[in-house]
Design goal:
271 residues; alpha/beta; Rossmann fold; seven-stranded mixed β-sheet; 9 helices; 9 strands; 18% strand
Length: 271
Amino acid sequence: MMKMDLGGVAETLLITLYIRAKDAKNAHPVLNDRKAAELIEKIDYDFSKFDSAWASYYGILARAKIMDREAAKFIEKYPDCVVVSVGCGLDTRFDRIDNGRIRWYNLDLPEVIEKRRFLLPDSPRSISIGKSALDASWPQDIEWQGKKLLIISEGVLMYMEESEVKAFLSILSDSFDDFEAQFDLMYKGLVKKAACHDVVKKTSAEFHWGVSNGSEITQLNPAFKQLACINFTDEMRHLLPSLLKLLTPFFYLTNNRLGIYTCQKPAPSPA
């Protein structure tokens, strides 16, 4: 058993892992993430403190399902692409949507990647990088030249200050010529309100940045062009029990959303 002595934002990776594992044990699973169910059996941690969080249970599953779907669309269009999962934690999306051809990079803090490599060893097409998303050197570790590139970030940007989000976007736009980005974005009304969140309040993490419609990304870095903003309630409303569906309008306001962007450097002007 591996003891999980993570704190702050890093501890939140255990929330999403546990909910995916809990779903896998359901008679009618949403994701059926068997890998997640296997992992929690190898981890020494009191997951029971997350059991009462019904809103996050459905919300996290809806988010994962939509993000799986949108990433899979990109992979279907570009089957030999490269994917970078920023702030991966113990995510198992590679196992859920791998087509047997993509190359996948998992980026997270060194202490997280150390645990990830023990529980989810690297493979020739799934490689872990132990660096902060704000370390401008990590793009040098990505072999992407000549391939289509997808950057995914789930449960990360809301824990950054706006200046850090801007710095992260600059690292991306300065390092890669042409890519698509799919960012999990939090509603701005929840900034500094982690104490009100049903599961994050059980960690020491805090929310620092949020959005209204995702255009905030393009305001911070005009190199990004917004393609879509998908509210996770679009999927969550199908998962909620009948009585809880009455809360759907509230969730449309406060739920996270998926911002999808392209970023392409202009071709150099002819001499």
